[in-house]
Fold these 2 entries.
Entry 1:
Amino acid sequence: MNRLAPSRDRLRIAIQKSGRLGTPARELLERLGLRFQESRDRLFCHGEVEPIDLLLVRDDDIPGLIAEGVCDLGIVGRNVLSEFRAENGRDPATAPAEWQPLGFGGCRLSLAVPEGLNYATPLDLAGRRIATSYPALLAEWLRSQAVAADVVTLSGSVEIAPRLGQADLICDLVSTGGTLVANQLREVEVILRSEAVLAAPGTPLPGLRGELAGQLRGRLAAAIGQRNSRLLMLNARRSQLSELLPLLPEGEPPSVMALDGDADGVAIKALCRGTVSWQQMERMKAAGASQLLVLPLEQMLP
Ligand code: PRT
Ligand code: ZN
C-alpha cells in the first residue's frame, strides 16, 4: 500500500519535520488526545486514535502542499503562509488560508538597519537595497508605503548581508532580538506579527475529511483557550459557601452540587484560569474546604 497517496477518509496534516515548530505542533496535537506512529523514514506519522495522519516536511513546503491537495491542513508560521499568499495570489477558492492562530512560534518580520544608517520614516528607504527571505511580503509592504527600494532575495544568513555589502539593510524574522544586536542591527519597522497557525485550503474539504477538519479546528481553539486552565474540585459545608466562593481563583462560574446522604455537604467544581497558588489553596482550606483537587485539562468541549 502506498501510504503517501492521499486517502479520501483520513485527514492529513503537514507539520515541520524539525526546526522550531515541529515539536510544539506535535505536542499540541497530542494534547488533544491524538497519538501517532512514525514511519521508518520519519516522513509520515500514522494516526492511531483518529484517522488523522501527519506528513513531516520543511516548513516552506507546507502552503504549497495544501494548495496542491497533497495535505489537507498544515501547521506553519504565518510568515511562511503570508509569503506564499503574497507570491501566489489570494484567490479565496484556491489559496491556503489561516484558520486558527495557535499561540506558539511567536516572532515578527521586521526591518533592521545597521548602526550609522539613519531611519526616521519608510521614505528613508528610497533607493536602498534590502536583503530578505520574504521578497513578496516586503515588496507588498514597500508598495503600501509608496516607496521604491531594491529587494535582494537571500535564502539564509540575511543578518550578515549589510556587512558583506550585499544590502544596506535587512528584513528578517526577530524573536528575542539577540541576533540583531549581535550583528549591530537596529529594528526600525515591524512588517508582520507572526505565530504558528493552522492553515487550510480555500475550498472546504469534502466528506469525512471536512468533518474531521472542522472538529480539529474547534478542539484546537478550545485547547488554546483553555491552555492555562485547571479544574478545581473541593467539598464544603453549604453554610460556608458565602465565605468560600469569593476565594475561588478567577475563572468560569463554579458548579455547586449536593452530596448524596449529606444534607449540608456540597461538592464544588470550577474551571480556573492560570495556576492555583499554595496560598489560595490554604485560604480555601481555612474557609472550610476539604478534598481540594487541582487537575490539568486534557480535552474540553464547551
Ligand atoms: O528546515 P525548515 O525549512 O523546515 O526550517 P527553517 O530553518 O526554515 O525554519 P525554523 O525552524 O528556523 O523556523 C520555523 C518558524 O519558526 C519560522 O518560519 C517562524 O514562523 C518561527 N520563528 C519564531 C522563527 C523565530 N521565532 C526566529 N527567531 N524563525 C526564525 N527565527 C530566527 C531569527 O530570524 C534569527 O535569525 O532565529 C534567529 C534568532 O532570533 P532572535 O531574535 O531570538 O535572536
Ligand atoms: Zn524553512
Entry 2:
Amino acid sequence: MGSGNMGSRREVLGIGAGMAALGLAPGLASRAFAADRKIGDAAADRKIGYAIVGLGYYATRQIMPNFAGCENARLVALVSGTPAKLEQYGSEYGIPPSYRYSYDQFDRIRDNPDIDAVYIVLPNSLHAEYSIRAAQAGKHVLCEKPMATSVAECQAMIAASRKAGKKLMIGYRSRFEPYNRLAIELARGGHVGPTRLITAEHGFPIQPGQWRLDKALSGGGSMMDIGIYSLNAARYLTGEEPVEVSAVESTDRSDPRFRTVEDRISFVLRFPSGIEANCISSYSSAHNGYRVIGTQGWIAMEPATPYVGQTMTIRKDGVTAPRTLPPPARNQFAGQLDHLAECILKGTTPIVAGEEGLADMRVIEAIYRSAAERRHIEMTA
Ligand code: NAD
C-alpha cells in the first residue's frame, strides 16, 4: 500500500513526457506529477487526478500532505482566490502554473483532462455551488462535510452529479478510520449485546472572528460543523435512520461569537429498532467521543473522531479492557481520497455518497426545527 514503491522507472517512462507535453522542462517534474502514474500496469494504468478547491487549514494541513500515502489518487490542480497561496502551494507540490486556477477561472477545469475529481474544501455555503459547477464541468466531486447548508442544496448537488454521470462523495473521513470501522462492526454485530443506547458528544470552544460564526457562510453553528460528527456516528453505529428527533438549544446571545449561529444543541434521536441516541453539539466546551451501550456492556470511543489518536475501551460481562489495532497502511485522509478514486476506476458507488450527506442534512433541519418549535419532530420517509 502507499506510494513508497514509486520507482525512477516511472519518472523516466512517463513523467518527462508529460511535462514536455505541458511545455515544461522534465526537470520541473515534481511531487504531484512525479508521484507516480503506474506506467505499464494496464489494470491500474493511472491515478485519479484531484483538484483541491479552497486552500485553507483543512486542505493544506490535512488533505494535501496525505496524497503521498495514496495508492490511486494524486494532486494535480489547485483552485484559490489568493494568488500567493497558488504560488506557495503550487511550488511546494509541483503544480504547473497552467494547473492553478482562480475562482473566476474555475469552470475552465472542464478543459483539463488530468483533473478527474474536484475536492471542495470551502466554507459550507459554497459547497453546493462549486460541487454543481464541478459536475457540470464533467468532474467527479468529493465535498467536505456538512454537504451543504440545506436539504434543497443537497438534492440539487445529487441531481447535478447524476445528470453529469459523475460520482459525488462527502468527506466523512471517520468511515475510513480503523477504530470507527471496528466500532461499527462491533455495534451492529451485537458484541456487547443488542445496542440499546448511544451517547455521542462533539464540541470545542470556538475562537471568534471566523466564517464558522457567520451564518451566511456556515449555514449554522456547532451543529453544522462539529455536532454533525455526533449525528453521523449515531447513524453509522446503528445503520438506521431516525424516526423521531427532539432538540434543545442553549446559546448565550450576548456572547459576540453567537450573534448569528447557535452554541450548544442537545438532541435525542429515536431509531426504528428502539435504539435511542443522546447527542451533544457544542461550540463552548470540549468533547469528542461516543459510547455504544448494549445489554452486556459498552464500547467507548474517546476520543472518537480526531485526526489521530482514536481510543477504544470495551466493557463486556463485567470486564473493562482497552482495544488496540495495528497502525493502518493508509490513514483516514488517504483512505478517503483513494476510496473515491477506486470507485471511479471500478465504477462503484462511494460508501459515503451524496445521499449520506443528504440524510444528515434532513436530520439537522429537523433538529433546528425541534429546538425552535420546542417539540418532537417525526421524520417522514
Ligand atoms: P478555512 O477557513 O481554514 O479555509 C476555508 C478556505 O476557503 C480559505 O482558504 C478561504 O480563503 C476560502 N474561501 C473561499 N471563499 C471564501 C469566502 N467567501 N469566505 C471565506 N473563505 C473563503 O476552513 P477549513 O477549516 O479549511 O474548512 C473548510 C471546509 O472543510 C469546511 O466545510 C469544513 O467543515 C471542512 N472541514 C472538515 C474537516 C474534517 O475533519 N472533515 C476539518 C476541518 C474543516
